[in-house]
Design brief:
The complex is a heterodimer of chains A (180) and B (265).
Chain A (H helix, E strand, L loop, with lengths): L1 H28 L20 H9 L4 H5 L6 H6 L2 H5 L6 E10 L2 E5 L6 E4 L13 E8 L3 E3 L6 E3 L4 E9 L12
Antiparallel strand pairs in A: 1-2, 1-4, 2-3, 4-7, 5-6
Chain B lengths: L5 H14 L45 H6 L4 E4 L11 E5 L2 E4 L1 H20 L4 E4 L6 H10 L3 E3 L11 H4 L9 E4 L11 H8 L4 E5 L10 E4 L5 H38 L1
Parallel strand pairs in B: 4-5, 4-6, 6-7, 7-8
Antiparallel strand pairs in B: 1-3, 2-3
Helix pairs in contact in B: 1-7, 3-7, 4-7
Classes of the chains: A alpha+beta (180), B alpha/beta (265).
């Protein structure tokens, strides 16, 4: 008698716990079959032939329209990026901008992962202020090397460049031509 | 949490979750709204369950792969500092410099932003970490602007694991940890990554090619060194949190209005 009651109680508890877990699963792991989040696109007007050409060439050439390309895959974007265009970075000349100055140390950002730190050149030294655009020759894009005994490289989180000259500086009035 | 009826049941789940608090000694009672059987369920209550929606906060539209590229997210460290477990997330390596596959990164970032927004919706406490001194101020400012918390200084060992003794009281630990930089200033993994995993706190982390992706719940492979990338991540996380909070406020207002209507009727 007692064992039969125990069994029914057990089965009730089991059924309730299953129901609970099912409810929980429904709440958290439900597969959505009809998720209509995207808006319906407008029907495009179909113009062809002369009408299409006339519209295309009579409109002013707007640059914004060119940049509104469909989302390209990363591979395409990367292939056309400046980094790939650079090739072997050693010896290449890039344009950087000084974003921080600490006495004679200039922190220059040239669009890469890291910035580079250069000493203020003797020539035109006072023109190197925050916001100055400079011409740089890259020596190394990341100062990291493997030291004896370690499994991984040790990085300095900096690039190594050499300043070639100023392109534009807030400290020099614009009427003067910059000297390299 | 049992789903009884569709309309009021869904709202009750949301209401229950909103009043739930982790690790606090005094538990707030869950809001139970039982409208009378002869009263119709008002149609203005949103019937969508945020958890079943694929992108409730629209985080997928917050950025594009092109935005990530412009923020220099695809740049990794050199091959010599590569962590082997980061290999699946790389596009490849060009002249010894590792490059992240931003198609993969975009997927991971969407997931992370979704988690952030949902955590904010449920009233969760979010803690930002960044041990990079250049970007510390950006992260602290972001946390302040979205009303959450940041820790960008030296991390004491027992802050999560020994909180009761170190803070001399029962402390509410964060519900989500966001690591803008998983390494500390001596290039070792931040202690909080391991400790968050120990304390069952979900973590989001920006993992660079020299970081270990092991203990992070929702990792985002990408650059963590450039100020441009960190600024992008901060702005995205801030936007996600603010959207979550706004939705929370809206839903709580709806519940309040419903309660008022029942009291009047």
């Amino acid at each position: 008698m007692i064992s039969i009651i125990h069994k029914t109680v057990q089965s009730n508890i089991l059924r309730k716990s299953l129901l609970n877990s099912y409810a929980v699963n429904r709440a958290f792991c439900k597969n959505i079959e009809n998720s209509n989040v995207e808006e319906k696109s407008e029907e495009d007007k179909k113009i062809s032939g002369f009408a299409k050409a006339f519209e295309k060439f009579s409109k002013p050439h707007i640059e914004e329209e060119i940049s509104k390309e469909p989302d390209l895959p990363f591979a395409t974007l990367f292939k056309n990026s400046k980094f790939v265009e650079l090739g072997d970075p050693e010896g290449k000349i890039v344009v950087g901008k000084i974003f921080h100055v600490v006495e004679d140390d200039l922190y220059i950002d040239f669009g890469w992962k890291f910035h580079c730190v250069c000493t203020r050149p003797a020539k035109n030294g006072q023109a190197y202020v925050r916001g100055t655009r400079v011409k740089l020759r890259i020596k190394d894009l990341e100062l990291s090397s493997r030291f004896l005994g370690s499994a991984k490289d040790l990085t300095l989180l900096e690039a190594d460049c050499h300043i070639l000259g100023i392109l534009s500086s807030p400290a020099i009035p614009k009427t003067k031509t910059p000297t390299l | 949490m049992l789903l009884k009826g569709q309309g009021q049941g869904l709202l009750r789940i949301i209401a229950n979750n909103m009043t739930k608090k982790n690790f606090s000694s005094a538990t707030a009672p869950a809001l139970e709204i039982e409208p009378k059987k002869d009263v119709e369920v008002p149609t203005k209550i949103s019937r969508i369950n945020p958890l079943t929606h694929p992108d409730y906060f629209g985080v997928g539209k917050m950025f594009t792969v092109r935005d990530l590229m412009e923020a220099r997210v695809h740049f990794g460290h050199k091959d010599g500092s590569l962590n082997d477990r980061m290999k699946p997330y790389l596009f490849g390596s060009r002249l010894n410099h590792t490059i992240f596959n931003l198609d993969i990164t975009a997927e991971h970032l969407k997931r992370a932003l979704n988690v952030t927004a949902h955590t904010a919706l449920q009233g969760g406490l979010i803690l930002f970490f960044c041990r990079s001194s250049i970007n510390a101020h950006t992260v602290e400012k972001t946390a302040k602007e979205c009303g959450e918390f940041a820790h960008t200084r030296y991390w004491r060992g027992g802050t999560f694991t020994n909180s009761k003794i170190q803070f001399k009281a029962i402390t509410r630990l964060p519900d989500l940890c966001i690591f803008l930089n998983t390494l500390n200033n001596v290039m070792l993994q931040h202690t909080a990554v391991r400790d968050a995993a120990k304390m069952n706190i979900p973590s989001i982390g920006i993992v660079d090619s020299n970081c270990s992706p092991d203990l992070i719940t929702y990792l985002v492979p990408g650059n963590d060194d450039s100020p441009a990338s960190i600024e992008l991540y901060c702005s995205l996380f801030k936007e996600a949190i603010l959207r979550g909070k706004a939705k929370r406020k809206e839903l709580l207002q709806e519940i309040e209005n419903m309660e008022k209507e029942q009291k009047d009727s």
